[in-house]
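Changelog-linked ticket: zinc ion example.
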Amino acid sequence: RAVLIVTLHHPKTSLGFIDRFLVTTDSFRIPSTIVFNKSDLLSKKDLGAIEYISSIYEPLGVNTLLISALKKEGIEEFKELIQDQITLISGHSGTGKSTITNLLVPDLDQKIGEVSESVKKGVHTTTFAQMFEVNPTTKIIDTPGIKELGLIGIEDNELSDYFPEMRALLGACKYNNCMHTHEPNCAVLAAIDNEEIAESRYLSYLSMLENEDRRW
Ligand SMILES: Nc1nc2c(ncn2[C@@H]2O[C@H](COP(=O)(O)OP(=O)(O)OP(=O)(O)O)[C@@H](O)[C@H]2O)c(=O)[nH]1
Ligand SMILES: [Zn+2]
């Protein structure tokens, strides 16, 4: 499983970044979970935003979890999620990956970086991926904070295969080489009109198509 640690603030994680991550994990058929960390910092409005984001991703088979590593809230659910598996933990620098790893692997004192006030993107304290044993059947791989996530080796014409809601419409467009951008009788464009596909997801798709190197 791949877990993406997401924070709304300090640092802010964009939907585009989430979508890039999910395209990558989907292309490797790795089940993914979005974990919202730093719940202790969230306002009512923020909680509404998280509910909205969850409502986009849950129907796509990406489950979501709200935790506070600082207040140790939601950690039991997190442990259940990763039990008896190898889990890749990813996310922007400063989202709390090291703090979470420390909670899961008690006899470990990983260096926890301060999120720098000026940059708000955090300083890189984890510089290479490390595997830790939570218990004999449960391991986590803590990856360095990622600022840019490249989608290596995905061709334009296969990109929509890694968006589950577009994949579900495979063969439904008039043209079988449809890129879902302007073509007549495009099932994806129709689904966006019907609000069956979230606009933010489609915008991420377009942005990934536009950016040759597929970086944010
Ligand atoms: N308020 C709050 N702060 C948190 C929480 N979890 C982590 N932090 C703080 O966020 C900062 C960054 O945490 P780290 O665990 O170093 O983040 P990281 O994702 O490992 O960062 P890199 O190692 O740079 O990739 C630290 O100051 C933590 O104390 C949380 O749940 N709430
Ligand atoms: Zn189409």
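Closing comment: Example verified and attached. Residues 113-122 have pLDDT under 50 and may be disordered. The radius of gyration is 18 Å.
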